[in-house]
Amino acid sequence: MSDIPRSGARRADPTEPALSAWELRTDLPMTALAFSFLGVYAWQVLGTEKSPGLHDALDTVMWVIWGIFAVDYLIKFALARHKPRFFVRYLFDLVTVALPMVRQMRALRLITIISVLNRQVSGTIRGKIGLYVAGATLLVGVSAALSVLEAERASPDATIKTFPDALWWTLTTISTVGYGDRYPVTTEGRLVAGALMIGGIALLGVVTGVIASWFVDKISGAEENIERTTREEIAEVRVELAALRELLLAQQHNGQVSAQRESGSGHP
Length: 268
Hints:
Layout: H1 17-46, H2 52-79, H3 83-89, H4 91-98, H5 114-118, H6 125-152, H7 163-174, H8 187-265
Helix pairs in contact: 1-2, 1-6, 2-4, 6-7, 6-8
Pfam family, one: Ion_trans_2
Transmembrane segments: 28-46, 61-79, 129-149, 191-216
Protein name: Voltage-gated potassium channel
């Protein structure tokens, strides 16, 4: 995603100074709006006892926030110097703005809040990726559970009627296990399921890559330690051999000197 910093805090793009400046100024406000969006959406889905007036008010708040996100995208598009590159780089933003059906997925911008935690995390990029994956998995899971519950619970053939059911379905789907005891029957629910399946495969690929990278680093580290230890031992052996050689040369020299002395003292 375009909003995930690649290493630590967001870095300004020298080729897009105006766009970078705008993003730096709006990151925190837009993240706060994303928190608000997810909270309002969860209240709307889970608050089954609310009055019709409250439901309409929550829906209005969501549309207002969605409109702000749309304006934000248009401003960034206007500020971008390289429009084609911007279009590709911010394709996810365009999808979430253009398709109100998946507007709740805009809450994925909450992943930018992890950049604050990222400053407290030391180590390799692998650890940072793991942090992002954990945050993205949590946000995708919650958003998908809310989405499928809203789409399914009104259907007479629904197998997902409560939020725990939705969470269980999300867990089995995103992990690609798919028990089949819970499944969507509506078109919107199946669209959410398709997106979640693709996301689950992508997340598993990242996790697999992180684990593989960890093993490679461990093996490489062990090989480097063995090689370094071997070099050190060889160096020590060379030093000892050099010392023995000097000792033998010294003894040989002393023996020659003694022999010459004895030979010299034997003549009148």
